[in-house]
Amino acid sequence: MTNERNLDNLMGGIDAEMQRLGWTTEQGREHLMKYYGKRSRLLLTEDELDNFLLYLQLTDTPTPNTPVNTEEQIKAAIVVFPDAISMASPELNSAIDIACEQLNEFVDYLQTLDPELEHHEAITAASITLNLLPRLFEANPVLADGIRQQCQSIRDNRP
Questions:
Q1: 94-126 as b/e: b if 16+ CB within 10 A
Q2: pTM of this prediction exceeds 0.85
Q3: Does residue 51 contact residue 12 with C-beta atoms inside 8 Å?
Q4: I need a labelling partner for 48 at 20 to 30 A (CA). Which of 15, 57, 69, 146 fits?
């Protein structure tokens, strides 16, 4: 019974967040296909539903045709991240979007290396790979220097 209640709470939360963002059912479906390879929330696991709800809660940009109510956005941010309000910025949101896109491309790449890998398994493999990167850089000074140069280039392009 608790599991059903949790699923109902997750579904209700997703409905509320999609409405807050002005997402249509089709936009939700597109997101599910892109990130989970599934066309319906009913096909998601409880963890995937929880992840989708968190994504929606962290998304602060409504669709272009939805009027923006700044007061509602601030209230939503306070509920979701009370400690991170000062960190929200267009630059941060852009960086998060880029990171998510790149991570998804890497997950897709991992699935080309092992086509039998399920999407959530590929995400786990990507996570493990990210965790191993510092040791790889420490063992390969040339790679570490390349990363430092990338960081310098990013700093140099600050407005």
A1: eeeeeeeeeeeebbeebbeeeeebebeebbebb
A2: no
A3: no
A4: 69
